[in-house]
Amino acid sequence: MGFAGIAVGAAMAGLRPICEFMTFNFSMQAIDQVINSAAKTYYMSGGLQNVPIVFRGPNGASAGVAAQHSQCFAAWYGHCPGLKVVSPWNAEDAKGLIKSAIRDNNPVVMLENELMYGVAFEFPQEAQSKDFLIPIGKAKIERQGTHITVVAHSRPVGHCVEAAAVLAKEGIECEVINMRTIRPMDIETIEASVMKTNHLVTVEGGWPQFGVGAEICARIMEGPAFNFLDAPAVRVTGTDVPMPYAKILEDNCVPQVKDIIFAIKKTLNI
Amino acid sequence: MRKMLAAVSRVLSGAAQKPASRVLVGSRNFANDATFEIKKCDLHRLEEGPPVTTVLTREDGLRYYRMMQTVRRMELKADQLYKQKIIRGFCHLCDGQMLLPLMQEACCVGMEAGINPTDHLITAYRAHGFTFTRGLSVREILAELTGRRGGCAKGKGGSMHMYAKNFYGGNGIVGAQVPLGAGIALACKYNGKDEVCLTLYGDGAANQGQIFEAYNMAALWKLPCIFICENNRYGMGTSVERAAASTDYYKRGDFIPGMRVDGMDVLCVREATKFAAAHCRAGKGPILMELQTYRYHGHSMSDPGVSYRTREEIQEVRSKSDPIMLLKDRMVNSNLASVEELKEIDVEVRKEIEDAAQFATADPEPPLEELGYHIYSNEPPFEVRGANQWIKFKSIS
């Protein structure tokens, strides 16, 4: 609360602070400053006072840290107008999104993932530049496909890519979309893909109720892609319990590759 | 000499437009300034406090009088408009009700007198007085209260969310503005321009945890933050005795030096603010001021204010400590101004408020098309979803 508010105040006075939460679980205490002091201010002031701040930190499940340290806040922050919320998967996402977040004149929440910090990725040449930016609000198609659209954010994107590799051997070609931004959501990329593949599976680490997948499904129903669905859209999510500690229990509380494959096959009626 | 003084006093004593029917005061010979004794402040961790005498010039006195009277009248008008249901929702007034600052005019005017326009100020929801002293017009303030397009936040914010240059509102969540203020002070220090930030909160908020977090970091990093507790003795309906284990709010900063100031005396507030600002500008770190004031009416318009205290108490304070009466008596008794002159200011202020209220009542509401505006800053236009998927609002920055 204290330092989050200090960071927001500094942003109001013209600096461009980055406020780090050790994990977003701790942001729950400070969430009043994120939402009421940062997100809503530009609107409440009639466009007079903007808040160019970045809140960053690890989000979601880690490994063996139990219930109070494992919550995913994508749905919580994604709910609020006035905020931008990004969720990187790989190294290039992390770099491009943090730079865009810092350069943005609005409050941006960057939901990182502790387990991804240690994973190495191919880093394309263009990403080496100090001005390499990834636009906020634009999803990326990580893998082209024709049979089904699989949408995810953060660490689960990797699991989807793995699942797609397994399914490719069986002749099923998945189109994997890395959301990169939770809010404002790039629904157009998802819609265009669904209109091509006619099937949709969403994957996230957070709890199912009122989550990112729920929002995607609702919007697909409201838009042009609905008429192209050959089966109901399906969600793969974290298990609907506070995160347990024992390894076997924890493993069954996050979506695994096998859960994604199962959901894809169910949707395709295979 | 007499004529010259008269001419000078006419120039100094008021606005450019004067009604032709005003009483001729030009032949009066006023003093240029006078010295007054002010209450000594109780001190915490300070060897010396603000001075116990101060000089008030005629020019300053007239300006303070006009400003306090304007804040008072503006708030009373807001009170009236709220009762007529032209103002909706929350209205915390400086005079106590509706979050109005009645009786707390000395605080906002006195503080402004102790700092520069380049300094910064942030407060909670009893903000109309400060919005005015920080530079906005009564028109813009009242029109914001009535939710019209001419309001300072274009009708988007209302009573609790008014902003001006170096004035950061207007904050609805009790206590949240205190860390914000420490953050603004951090920016002041970072920018190295010798600016300070006045960070206000009430006796109710003083028990909040985030305030102590702000005290800690401000002291650690020696931020030029003046923490100001406006103690009006009641946190909504709870008296300070029932709310705080320690009611010595000026000591609650512990390792932060503090002073207890008579918040009903504009000169006392001014000197204390000057002293506090000098402390911060000298790089000594944060300082705390407790302003002892009183809240006439209830916490807000929904609170008559008599269920938790007696009418006698209210009457007594009203008759003995009215900050405007105090200034008036001082000025008249020291020949800094005449009773007639001050009455004229009253008339002018009343007119200004009437005109502003007229505007605030007649100005149209913001256009519906602009409902989605100002979500993001510096952003290309996008669409905002309405009550259903077919209703869309355009959003521009």
From TrEMBL, chain A:
Keyword annotations from UniProtKB, A to Z:
Carbohydrate metabolism, Glucose metabolism, Oxidoreductase, Pyruvate, Thiamine pyrophosphate
Residue ranges occupied by any Transketolase-like pyrimidine-binding domain in the UniProt entry: 1-119
Enzyme superclass (EC)? oxidoreductase
SMART domains according to UniProt = Transket_pyr
Q: Which cofactor does it need?
A: thiamine diphosphate
Task: Give the molecular function GO annotations.
Answer: pyruvate dehydrogenase (acetyl-transferring) activity
CDD domains referenced in this protein's UniProt entry, alphabetically: TPP_PYR_E1-PDHc-beta_like
| E.C. number | 1.2.4.1
Would the keyword Oxidoreductase turn up in this protein's UniProt record? Answer: yes
Q: Which GO terms describe its biological process?
A: glucose metabolic process; pyruvate decarboxylation to acetyl-CoA
Record has Oxidoreductase as a keyword = yes
Q: What is the catalytic activity of this protein?
A: N(6)-[(R)-lipoyl]-L-lysyl-[protein] + pyruvate + H(+) = N(6)-[(R)-S(8)-acetyldihydrolipoyl]-L-lysyl-[protein] + CO2
Q: What is the purpose of this protein?
A: The pyruvate dehydrogenase complex catalyzes the overall conversion of pyruvate to acetyl-CoA and CO2. The pyruvate dehydrogenase complex catalyzes the overall conversion of pyruvate to acetyl-CoA and CO(2), and thereby links the glycolytic pathway to the tricarboxylic cycle.
Which NCBIfam families does the entry mention? PRK09212.1
Describe its assembly. Heterotetramer of two PDHA1 and two PDHB subunits. The heterotetramer interacts with DLAT, and is part of the multimeric pyruvate dehydrogenase complex that contains multiple copies of pyruvate dehydrogenase (E1), dihydrolipoamide acetyltransferase (DLAT, E2) and lipoamide dehydrogenase (DLD, E3). These subunits are bound to an inner core composed of about 48 DLAT and 12 PDHX molecules. Interacts with DLAT.
Q: What is this protein called?
A: Pyruvate dehydrogenase E1 component subunit beta
Identify the taxonomic lineage of the organism of origin. Eukaryota, Metazoa, Chordata, Craniata, Vertebrata
From TrEMBL, chain B:
Query: Could you tell me where this protein is found in the cell?
Result: Mitochondrion matrix
InterPro entries referenced in this protein's UniProt entry, alphabetically? DH_E1 (IPR001017), PDH_E1_Alpha_Subunit (IPR050642), Pyrv_DH_E1_asu_subgrp-y (IPR017597), THDP-binding (IPR029061)
Presence of keyword Mitochondrion: yes
Q: Which GO terms describe its molecular function?
A: metal ion binding; pyruvate dehydrogenase (acetyl-transferring) activity
Name any cofactors this protein relies on: Mg(2+); thiamine diphosphate
- Could you mention a single GO BP entry for this protein? pyruvate decarboxylation to acetyl-CoA
Domain named Dehydrogenase E1 component: residues: 67-368
Q: Which class of enzymes does this protein belong to?
A: oxidoreductase
What EC number(s) does this enzyme carry?
1.2.4.1
Record keywords = Carbohydrate metabolism, Glucose metabolism, Magnesium, Metal-binding, Mitochondrion, Oxidoreductase, Phosphoprotein, Pyruvate, Thiamine pyrophosphate, Transit peptide, Tricarboxylic acid cycle
Q: Which GO terms describe its cellular component?
A: mitochondrial matrix
Instruction: Write down the chemical reaction(s) this protein catalyses.
Output: N(6)-[(R)-lipoyl]-L-lysyl-[protein] + pyruvate + H(+) = N(6)-[(R)-S(8)-acetyldihydrolipoyl]-L-lysyl-[protein] + CO2
Q: Does the keyword Nucleotide-binding apply?
A: no
Family annotation (Pfam families): E1_dh (PF00676)
NCBIfam families (UniProt xref): PDH_E1_alph_y
Q: What does this protein do?
A: The pyruvate dehydrogenase complex catalyzes the overall conversion of pyruvate to acetyl-CoA and CO(2), and thereby links the glycolytic pathway to the tricarboxylic cycle.
- Which protein is depicted? Pyruvate dehydrogenase E1 component subunit alpha
Question: Which organism is this protein's natural source?
Answer: Pipistrellus kuhlii
